[in-house]
Amino acid sequence: MNIEMIEAAAARLAGHARRTPLLSSPFLDEIAGRRVLVKPECLQLTGSFKFRGAWSAISALDPAVRARGVIAFSSGNHAQGVALAAKMHGAPSVIIMPSDAPQLKLANTRAFGAEVVTYDRANEDRDEIGARLSAERGLTLIKPFDEPQVIAGQGTAGLEIAEDLLEMGITEAEVLVCCGGGGLTSGVALACADRAPGLRVRPVEPEGFDDVTRSLAAGEILRNASMSGGICDAIVTPQPGNLTFPIMSEHCGPGLVVSDEEALQAMAQAFLRLKVVAEPGGAVALAAALTRTDSLQGDTVVAMISGGNVDPAMFARALATL
Amino acid sequence: MNIEMIEAAAARLAGHARRTPLLSSPFLDEIAGRRVLVKPECLQLTGSFKFRGAWSAISALDPAVRARGVIAFSSGNHAQGVALAAKMHGAPSVIIMPSDAPQLKLANTRAFGAEVVTYDRANEDRDEIGARLSAERGLTLIKPFDEPQVIAGQGTAGLEIAEDLLEMGITEAEVLVCCGGGGLTSGVALACADRAPGLRVRPVEPEGFDDVTRSLAAGEILRNASMSGGICDAIVTPQPGNLTFPIMSEHCGPGLVVSDEEALQAMAQAFLRLKVVAEPGGAVALAAALTRTDSLQGDTVVAMISGGNVDPAMFARALATL
C-alpha cells in the first residue's frame, strides 16, 4: 500500500463517486468546545463510503476479468457498494447473503443490480457456495476491507479531507473515523500522512466491539469476544485486517470507544444540526467528537459519518433522545 | 434585477456559503420514471437556502451602514440566515418574532447571534416596533424575498445547478423549486435563463397556498385565502412579491401543487434514498418530481430541497408514511 495507489484510485473514482463536502454547525462547535467538521459519507452513492472501495477494486480489474463478474459476502453496505459499482461498469455481481437478512437489504441489493444468492446459516457454508459459484463463472471476490484496492478507494476520502482542511488553512486536527475492519481508517490515515501529516487519524468503535482500539494498545491483533448484541452492526468485524492493522499501527493515534446511547445521540445531532441521516455505526466518530472532548487535542476535530443506511424504527430511537 | 447581480452575489458568497452538491438515487429515478437530481439546500448553513440571500444582502451594504446592524421580521429560516450572516460579518442583528413562536426557534436564532425582540401578536404592532428600533439604532431592514440583493443571493443556487448540469452534459430539464414569496424561484429562474435556457424552472407549492401557481395562470398577483392550516409553513406567504412575480411570469413554467401527505412522503424518500433531512415545505419540489410525472417533460428533473429545519415529531410523521 502506498499513496500512489490512493491517487490512482482517486483518478478512477473521479466523476463516478460523489465528492462529499465538509459540514459544520456552530451548535456542534459549542458542544465539543472546538471546531467540528463532519465528512458525510452517508451522502456517498449507496449511502456509505463502501462505494469508494468497491469502485476502486472493480475499476482496477482487467476488463476481461471484470466482464465475468464479481462476488462479495455481505448483508450490508459493502454489498450495496459492490452491486452498484459493478452495475455502473456493466459487470454482473453476485452477493451472498444469509436467507434471514432483512428483506429491505435483500431488496436494495437486488435493486442496485446484483444477483443475490441466499444461504441457510444453520445448514450451509457460505464460503463453499461462494467458491463453487466463483469457479463455475470465473467471478472475482471483492473483499470488504483487507484488500489493497479497497483500502486505496476508501483512502480517497482522506485525500478530500486533507485538501479541504488545507484550503481552510487548517494543518493540525484530529480526524475521527468509524472503524470496523479498518479499511476506511487505514486508507484515510495513509492519505493524511502524505498530504497533511499534522492530522492525526483515530479509529472510533462501539463499546464491546473495540478490537482495533485494544489491538493498537496491545501492539498485536486481538479479537472481539462477540459479534452480536449492539446496534452498530455496520462496523462490527471479528478483528482488524492483516493489511489494515500494520497501517493503523504506524499512522493512527489511540482508538476511542463510545456507547450505543452516545451513537444514538450523535445521530440526533446530525439530524438536528447538519440535516443528514447517520446510521448507528456511522455516528460513532461524531459521538466521540462531541463527548470525548478531554481525550482530543487541538482546536479542530474532523468526524466522518461513514454511512446512513438505517431503518426508520432505529432512526426514531435516535430522535427520541432529543 | 439582472444576471450580473447574481454573479456578483456569487462572488461575495464564495468561501462563505456552502456549495451544495447534486444528489441522486436509482430508486428515485425508478419512482419518477426519469432521472431525478436533488439540490439539497438543507445542507446550506443554517439549514436552508435563506443564508444565501441574507449573506448577499448584508455583504452588499456599505460597511458603515452594516456596522450599525440589520433587522428582520421572521420566525423561521430567514431569521436564522440573517442572524448568522450578520454575525459572520461582525454586525449586530435584531430579529422581531412573536412571543408565542416555538422556543426552539427563539433559542436557535439567539444562538446564531441575533438579539431577538418579541412582541405580543394580540396587542402590539410588529411594524411599529421594527420602525422604532430601526430609527433609534440605524438598522437596515433585510426583507425576506422582495429585495434585489436577496433574489440575487438565492439565484446563486441556480448558477450552481446550471453549472453542474452542463458539466453532466444535460442542457434540458425541468427545475422544480419550493416556492413561497418567490425569491428563490425567481433568482434560480434568472440564473438558469442566462446559463442554460433549456432548463425550465417551475414553482411548487402546497395545496391551499398556491398563490404563485394561480397568479402565474391568471397573469396577475392573487392572494392566498388563508395563511394557516398546513404543515409547509416555511414556504407560506400571502402573495407573490412585486419584484419576484414579473420575473417568474417571464421565465417560469406553470406551477405545480402537492398535498401535505405527498410532502411527508417525499421527506421519507429523502431520508431513505438521499440521507438528507427535509422539512415539509422543503420537500414539495421533490414530491412533485416523484408524483407529478405526467405533468413533467423530458428525461431529467431537478428538485430543490429548500430547507431541513423540522422538529423531531414532524419528522416522525414523515417516517411513518414508509
TrEMBL record, chains A, B:
Source species, domain of life: Bacteria
EC number: 4.3.1.19
GO molecular function: ATP binding; L-serine ammonia-lyase activity; magnesium ion binding; pyridoxal phosphate binding; serine racemase activity; threonine deaminase activity; threonine racemase activity
Keyword Chaperone set for record: no
InterPro entries linked to this entry: Ser/Thr_deHydtase_PyrdxlP-BS, TrpB-like_PALP, TrpB-like_PALP_sf
Top-tier EC class: lyase
Pfam families for the chain: PALP (PF00291)
Alphabetical keyword list: Lyase, Magnesium, Pyridoxal phosphate
Gene Ontology process terms (BP): D-serine biosynthetic process
PROSITE patterns: DEHYDRATASE_SER_THR (PS00165)
Endpoints of the signal sequence: none
Record carries keyword Magnesium: yes
Residues of the Tryptophan synthase beta chain-like PALP domain: 15-307
Cofactor(s) named in the record: pyridoxal 5'-phosphate; Ca(2+); Mn(2+); Mg(2+)
UniProt family annotation: Belongs to the serine/threonine dehydratase family.
Protein name as it appears in the record: L-threonine dehydratase catabolic TdcB
Taxonomic source organism: Pseudooceanicola marinus
